[in-house]
Design goal:
Length: 166
Amino acid sequence: MADAGRAAEAAARSRADYPRFLTIATRWMDNDVYGHVNNVTFYSYFDTVVNEHLIRAGGLDFARDAAIGVVAETSCVFRKSLSFPDTIDAGLAVTKLGNSSVVYEIGLFRHGDETPAALGRFVHVWVDRATQRPVAIPSRIRAALEPLQVRRARTSGAKRGLVTQS
């Protein structure tokens, strides 16, 4: 998707577009010298909301499971600054659930805001821990991801909508 399309998509998102949320407290160390959360920290928030869900809802044992999710791609569209002591509501959705890969969309919302401060894309590819070759997403992980699936409707222009998959 073109950068302008991703920016328009981020502007069109709201809390209602995400089936799951995790509250994340910013920390003093998250701020950079400009007084806002450093851009790299946003990626840490993405990683946190995805893996918290996989551990709690999917029973992921990242230290011992034979299949692990390896991050293959990440991106972020920044819309507004966040800073300590903001509280972030990280919205999580699955926009594609394949055989061995999953695409997540994460919306980072300042607590109380209806529009995201940032929109993230995060792709996991499931691999065999020993061989690093792609494998099917484990059934318990798939079961945890299925309720998060949404279909993002593609429309002409900058307007984008949300359609829940049936």
